[in-house]
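step 4 of 6: structure.
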Amino acid sequence: MKGIRLKSFRKSIVKKTKPLVVFLAGPTAVGKTRVSEAAARLLNAEIISCDSMQVYTGLDILSSKLPPALRKKIPHYLIDCVSPDKEYDVSRYRREAVRKIKEICARGRVPLFVGGTGLYMSVVIDGLFNAGKPDEKVRAKLSKLLNDKGNEFLYHYLKRVDPEAAGKIHPHDTKRVIRALEVFETTGTPISVLQKQRKGLARFYDIRIFCLNMDREVLYRRINERVERMFRQGVLNEVVRLLSLRLSKTAYQAIGIRELERYCKRECPLEEAKEAMKHNTRLYAKRQLTWFRKDKRIQWVEISENDKPLQIAKRIVKEINV
RNA sequence: GCCGAGGUAGCUCAGUGGUAGAGCGCGGCCCUGAAAAGGCCGGCGUGGGGGGUCCGAUUCCCUCCCUCGGCA
């Protein structure tokens, strides 16, 4: 019995010719960050953040970043790499993340992605179709069309040029209708055709995806507590500072900014803004879970609040070695 | 103790003698260059307990329990 187990263990090591890349996902406030430290140590890994808001400098409390002092022992990448007055998007994330993977693997270490932005994760793993940069001019033109003629008109336009994409997009989802039309107008090719042309990393890397999850009620309680903590740490000052800059469209959508902006403009009491932050964060966590649930490659790690980060990390590492 | 108001979804409340809705909350889902964004779908219920009238009660009557307000 022991011999067999040892044999298959050796075999699995020999078989692993592709470099290992690990993803640690999970809804907001589930405890990814604290587990990542322990997991990185056990795996001899370097951490690549997979979070659309932690890329921004200045969104420290809002995005619950690990303080810089605590990031020193293990290298962390793609945190604090862009100013909040700059736009950031999936494409740029993917480019930078793929570069980091190569660098880390070249050093003989393991890239460990940690974060809750599902789209960023999927784009790193499965690739992104190439449609060139977004064209603000075309976008503006299409928005104007939307304003003047309404979403049904825009949707019918899409239905004519790209029925396949139209079939997948709801007429009310104007953001996606516009994007599909933008791609068609700038490239002359329907987005539904381009979307099939993506190259993933699975051929070159041994990719393992883990998603932390816990009882929903406990998670929601933790989210509420986290928001309360943010206020004790001074989110209000942080947001006031951010609002004095010219925030980019992408940075502006972090949960907490619009809510506290309303308070600053005296449009609502502080308590209402705070409750809105809690609520929006809970909805966000729910959407994250829906996204992750869809990906059948994910290995779920059910945890309870009292589990020690090291124990959780050990469970994950054990799964990897199976 | 007496008088009044009321007990319907997780919460606030509508409504009807033919087994019930609304808002919020909650749940599920979609997603490919804005993703902490954007969009779609779902009522999730022993109608306070018991009894009576009626073909039929959440609705009418009686009783008990509970909550709130007033008087003691």
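step 5 of 6: annotate
 - Confidence is low (pLDDT under 50) at residues 1-14 of chain A.
 - The radius of gyration of chain A is 22 Å.
step 6 of 6: archive
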